[in-house]
Amino acid sequence: MFRNAVQPWHLLVVLVVCLLVFGSKKLPEMARSLGRSMRILKSEARALRADDTP
Hints:
By secondary structure, the protein is mostly helical. 78% of the residues lie in helices and 0% in strands. The model has no long low-confidence stretch (mean pLDDT 86).
């Protein structure tokens, strides 16, 4: 049922909708913020794993 759910043109449509909703100036700022958040999350997860190992 969901085998071909995500096609490349679906991603293109989502990108166009995001561009229309947020504008071209706001998208890079949002991507940078998301990248920073992911890095913080990864570092915190690594720190938790390091604390658990004896």
